Amino acid sequence: MNTIVGTYECKVDAKGRLLLPAPLKKQLAASLQNGFVLKRSVFQPCLELYPMEEWDLMMQKINKLNRFVKKNNDFIRRFTAGVKVVEIDALGRLLVPKDLVVFASISKDAVFSSAVNIVEIWDKDLYEKSISGEDVDFADLAEEVMGNTNDDNGIS
């Protein structure tokens, strides 16, 4: 798993293409040849860009689900709804399909935000709202999510 780092802003052109900022393109260079999967986020009004290697790992997990359990089938259908295989062209542009642009309400300004091993793609205004802290106390969230975990040397 490669860790992706950074948050980058870009403009959306008239054809719905996003120009990957150079630092992000450099981090994704090893994945450019294999392509990417672009999908709707489960929890947020944004898109998720998976390098193909990461998508394959996710599919390995999902393929372990018993398809004879209705909830599993429902989950798989919703998780993969709108999934597209995409490529970044020679100029470093990503063409976002229209249905995904509509889902994420991406207009003229977009944000690429690293999420460990994938990249979230947001409409800039929605991204700013999501990180503003109005709906979540981040200190409480950090304590709840990370407060009870210790690594091998006892540092959390």
Distance between the termini: 21 Å
Going by helix content, strand content and strand pairing, the class is alpha+beta
What are the secondary-structure elements, in order, as H or E? EEHEEHHEEHEEHH
- Largest pleated sheet: 6 strands, antiparallel
pLDDT averaged residue by residue: 90
Number of helices: 6
Helix content: 25-40%
- Strand order, sheet with most strands: 1-7-8-4-3-5
| Rg, Cα atoms, Å | 17 Å
Query: pLDDT below 50 for ≥5 consecutive residues: which ranges?
Result: none
Strand content: 15-25%
Number of strands: 8
Shape: globular
Structure report:
With 156 residues, the chain is of the alpha+beta class. Helices cover 33% and strands 24% of the residues. The strands form two sheets. The chain has a six-stranded antiparallel beta sheet with strand order 1-7-8-4-3-5. A two-stranded antiparallel ribbon has the order 2-6. The protein is globular and about 40 Å long. The model has no long low-confidence stretch (mean pLDDT 90).
Features:
156 residues; alpha+beta; six-stranded antiparallel beta sheet; two-stranded antiparallel sheet; 6 helices; 8 strands; 33% helix
Short overview:
By secondary structure, this protein is an alpha+beta fold. It has helices at residues 22-27, 52-62, 70-79, 98-104, 124-131, 138-146; strands spanning 7-11, 17-19, 36-40, 47-51, 84-86, 93-95, 109-115, 118-123.
